[in-house]
Every structure is written in C-alpha cells, then in structure tokens.
Design goal:
Blueprint: H1 3-8, E1 13-16, H2 22-34, E2 45-46, E3 49-50, E4 58-59, H3 73-80, E5 85-89, H4 91-94, H5 97-109, E6 115-119, H6 124-127, E7 134-135, E8 138-139, E9 144-146, H7 153-166, H8 170-205, H9 210-237, H10 245-255, H11 266-285, H12 289-309, H13 314-333, H14 337-357, H15 362-381, H16 387-404, H17 409-428, H18 432-452, H19 457-476, H20 480-500, H21 505-519, H22 530-546, H23 556-564
Parallel strand pairs: 1-4, 1-5, 5-6, 6-9
Antiparallel strand pairs: 2-3, 7-8
Helix pairs in contact: 3-5, 8-9, 8-10, 9-11, 10-11, 11-12, 11-13, 12-13, 13-14, 14-15, 15-16, 15-17, 16-17, 17-18, 18-19, 19-20, 19-21, 20-21, 21-22
Length: 569
C-alpha cells in the first residue's frame, strides 16, 4: 500500500502486531475483511456510527518496519485514518518497540477511538504492551478477545472484536452466527442427498474399465470417508441421520458382504468396519438392538481380519476394541450382563494394550476410562460391590485425559457421562446426597458444552438427561422445588427434540420418561396438565408396543398408572 493510499483512505481498523505474529495477523485481517454483518443488523445506529455491511478496509502493514528511528509517514497516516486499533498481544508483541509506538501514537492522535486487544499467547501480564495498560494517565487492565484455546477460542474472539469495531451487542452477533451455522448444516443435509446420487454414479462407473475403476475407487473411498466424518458429524448435530440411509446402502453394496473381507485392502477394510459401526449405532438410536448386533458383528469380522494382518498396529488394536465395545453395548441395553461383561473385558484388554504402547496418549487414556466405566455399569447391573471402584477409575482416567487436553469438549462430555454412571451407582444404593453432588458436576459440564454450541441437538439431549437426573435425585433428597424446576426444563427440551426428529426412538422414550417424572410433581400454572401428560405417555406407549419395541419396559408403574387413570381430570 502506497503512502498516498494510506493518506487518502479511511480504515475500519489498524492491526498492530509483531513480526513473530505475522501469520496470525494475516488470518485475522482476512477474517475481518471477509466478514459480512448479518443483514438485519446493517444500518443500526451504534456509538461507532451506522453499522456497515462489510468491515473492509482493514489496514495491516505487510512487514514489520526496518530498523529506523521513527514510524514511517504512511504508518502515521494510516493510524490517523483508522477508526479503531486492534493490537495482537503476545510476549513478542509486549517487547516490540513498533507495537508500543503504534499504540502510543494512536492514543495521542485519536484518544476517543477504541483500542481493542486480541490475546494470542501468554498471560495478560506477559502479553500486553505497557502503553495499553495506561489510558489518559490512569492505569487500566484492557479487556481482551482471548484467541487462546483455553480462552474464548478463535470463533468467539473474532466476534468480540467485530462487536467492538461495530458497536453491536455481542449476544446479537453470537445469535446470528449460530443461525448462519444452522443454515450451513441444512445445506449439508441437502448435499447428503446429492452425495448419495453421486455415490451411485461412482459405483456404476467403477466397473467399466480397470484404469477408470482405480480412479473412481479413490473417489468413492473419499466420499465414504466424508460420509463417516464431516457429513455424519453435521447431520448428527441436527438429528437427521436418516438422510444418509440411501448413501449407506450404496456404500454397503460397494464393499460387498463379509465373505469378501480377505480381498479388501487395509484402508477399505478399516472404512468398512467404521461404516458397520455407524450403521449399528443408528440402529440402536432407532431402538432396533437386534439389527444393531448384526451390523456390529459384521464390523467385528472386518476388524478381526485387520488385526490378524497387523497384530501390533495400534489402529488395528483400537478398531477391534471398538467392535468389542459396540457388541457389549447391545447386551448392556438388553441387561444381559454376563455377555456384556465378556465383551467389555475384551474391550478393556484392547485398551490396556494401547496404553502400554503409549502411556501418555490421551486418546488411549480415554479408552481406559470408557472400558472401566462400562465394566462398572455391568457390575452395578449385577449388584456387584466392585461397581463403584470401577466407575471411579473411569472418572480418573478421563480426568487425566482432560488434563492433557484442557478445553476439549469431547473429553468434557465423556467426563460428564462418567459422572452420570457414578451417580447412578449412588442412586441405586439410595445415597441421595452423594448422588446429587455428582449429578450437579455432570449438569454443569453439560451446560457449558451446550452454551458453546447451542445448535447441536445431540448435546441438547445430553443436557436434558442431566436435568432430569438432577430433578429425580432432588425429589428423593426432599428438594421438591429444584426437582420441579429441573424436570420441567428437561421436559421442554425433550418436546423440542421429539418435534425435531420424530423417528428417534431414544428421544421419544426419554420424552415419555420425563413426562412420567412430571406425574410425581404438582403441575405448575405454566406447565402441562396431568391430562396432557397422561395422553402423551399413553400415545408413546401405544406407538412403541405397535413396533414391538420394549424400550419403555423400565417404567411399568408409570404405564400402569396412566392405563388406570380416568380420561380427564
């Protein structure tokens, strides 16, 4: 940028940074200039003036200045022409004389314009230039957009800067950003249908010629990988895995039946196993445990073939451990404890092999935690006193993994689930105080996870189960007010989930259980009436019975009460 350009143009912001932070400055510069303010917020009057459609132009000098006695004229002009100053704060920026001079000059030239801090690395005391700690002669502690993983994270930190540059309310920007992300997921849902057609075309073309088949094989494998990772993750967030049914059928046909496993190369064998695991998980979600077991045994055949080829390969060991886990999960759901224990002990043996290969690996720590947790649940189902030590071991392993990866929401979610199983062990022994203390730990973690991603339906379901559990234990502990508040909140979320995906039998069964819980709580003026609850429960029971689904077998007393109740209050 020429000196004349800097002198004649006005800039939304000037980015000040040290040479060591140039890559971060380029990324932030690109993100700010490409950001489009949501249409409904454009033109609003704020202390910074009318909100623009775009934030461009943003000034960023291409290189740190060469050693010189003073700032260049074009830097001075750009600072004078900038509506705000964004300072990338880090230990290297704190000792940079150019950052210090740019901040001091901007405050001298434009004392009423905002200076925004973007914390990249280090603690504030190590990262903020001295000139940012003094404003008009008074010592101050700047409020920073914290880009560190353990802080706001890049997405929220960028939104904080945008709020500071535009004068918009941060909550409004977060809400609009979440809506944008939801629209993108809806677009992915449409893309899934198109991907299924593309998969079919690839599979037909693949048989035409050897050279063409090799090329199409690579494309098909890439598409299956996309289905199993990015696409599945996004569709799972919004509870629309049913969109993948057609694509799944094509992928199964592509890989062939279990008799063809020996002919598959290693990477295809691994993907086939993961596909079968995913199909089994979907069958469990719909309540079809028998179908799930078929898929999991098919995956088990593939992972055993891979392990026989590579008995010391951690990927093959982990894949086999996953098959053992999933088969055990079916027996656990059926409460067939001896068979579940056999599978979970195999899973635990695989996890132990992995941790022996790499004791500091947090992923392997997670496998150790999950396997101990699963064995604890089995022990609890068999009224074995070994349940609590196993469940506590699960919590300890997952906590260790969390220490290795602070701020990892997947690990935090697993920790919340481990707390849930531990609380259940106290609940079964009628130790209400201990159960309630652990349930509150679980709830606080799940609430933080949903706050970070409020559009994820799966995480909303997990939070709803935590709310229901806190409500149930609170009622047993004599706190009826907390029980009512938490149960009604869980019921509101369950109604949203069922409306969002009526085919999800797990969510429907949960909704019915929460409705049963509400029968034990005096209805509030703003809540459902007993008649409404009974009708909802009766409809769900009839639907599950017509499907031959025993998912509500654990609440027979509630079902009997509803059947014996009069049709109206």
């Amino acid at each position: 940028m020429s000196e004349n350009d800097a002198a004649t143009r006005r800039f939304r912001a000037f980015i000040s940074y040290s040479h060591a932070d140039a890559a971060a400055a380029r990324r932030l510069h690109r993100a700010l200039e490409q950001y489009r303010v949501p249409r409904r917020l454009v033109g609003q009057a704020t202390p910074q003036g009318p909100v623009p459609r775009r934030l461009a132009p943003i000034f960023r000098d291409r290189e740190e200045l060469a050693a010189a006695a003073d700032l260049g004229a074009h830097i001075r002009d750009a600072l004078a022409a900038s509506d705000a100053l964004v300072v990338l704060c880090s230990p290297t920026a704190r000792v940079s004389p150019w950052v210090e001079r740019e901040v001091a000059l901007f405050r001298a030239q434009s004392p009423d314009r905002p200076v925004l801090a973007a914390l990249l690395d280090g603690e504030p005391a190590q990262a903020f230039p001295d000139s940012m700690r003094v404003d008009r002669g008074a010592v101050c502690e700047p409020i920073a957009a914290d880009f560190r993983p353990r802080g706001d994270g890049p997405r929220l930190a960028r939104l904080k800067l945008i709020a500071g540059l535009t004068g918009l309310d941060l909550d409004a920007l977060i809400q609009r950003d979440a809506q944008r992300r939801l629209r993108r997921v809806m677009a992915v849902t449409l893309a899934a249908s198109i991907a299924a057609l593309g998969m079919a075309a690839l599979l037909v073309i693949a048989v035409q010629a050897r050279a063409e088949a090799e090329r199409q094989h690579a494309k098909a494998e890439g598409l299956v990988e996309f289905m199993l990772t990015d696409l599945r993750r996004e569709l799972k967030k919004v509870g629309r895995l049913d969109v993948m049914e057609a694509a799944n059928r094509r992928a199964i046909a592509y890989y062939g039946d279990a008799t063809a496993l020996a002919a598959l190369p290693d990477d295809s064998l691994e993907r086939r196993a993961r596909l079968m695991h995913a199909l089994g998980e979907d069958a469990q979600t719909s309540g079809d445990q028998a179908r799930a077991l078929i898929w999991f045994r098919d995956a088990d055949a593939a992972t055993r073939t891979a392990l026989a080829r590579r008995p010391r390969d951690p990927k093959a060991i982990l894949a086999q451990a996953q098959s053992d886990y999933w088969i055990g999960s079916v027996y656990r759901a059926r409460k067939e404890w001896p068979q579940a224990e056999i599978q979970y002990r195999r899973y635990a043996a695989g996890a132990a092999r992995l941790i022996a290969l790499d004791p500091a690996n947090p992923d392997y720590m997670m496998e150790m935690g999950w396997s101990a947790q699963d064995l604890g649940v089995v022990a609890q189902g068999r009224r074995d006193p070994a349940a609590e030590p196993l469940l506590r071991a699960g919590v300890a392993w997952i906590s260790r993994a969390g220490q290795k990866r602070p701020g990892d929401f997947e690990i935090q979610s697993a920790l919340a689930n481990a707390y849930a199983d531990l609380a259940d062990s106290y609940y079964e022994r009628r130790l209400w105080r201990q159960a309630l203390a652990i349930r509150w730990r679980q709830y606080r973690i799940d609430q933080q996870i949903v706050d970070a991603d409020p559009s994820d339906a799966g995480k909303i379901y997990t939070l709803a189960t935590a709310e229901r559990s806190v409500g149930r234990v609170s009622l047993r502990a004599g706190d009826a007010a907390t029980a009512a508040t938490m149960t009604r909140s869980a019921y509101a979320r369950s109604q949203w989930l069922v409306a969002h995906d009526p085919k999800n039998s797990e969510w429907s069964a949960f909704d019915t259980r929460v409705a049963c819980d509400l029968l034990d709580i005096a209805p509030a003026a703003q809540g459902p009436t007993l008649t409404e609850l009974r009708r909802r429960i009766a409809a769900a029971v009839a639907r599950f019975r017509s499907q031959g689904n025993p998912v509500l077998a654990d609440i027979p007393l509630c079902v009997q009460r509803v059947a014996a109740a009069p049709a109206a209050e």
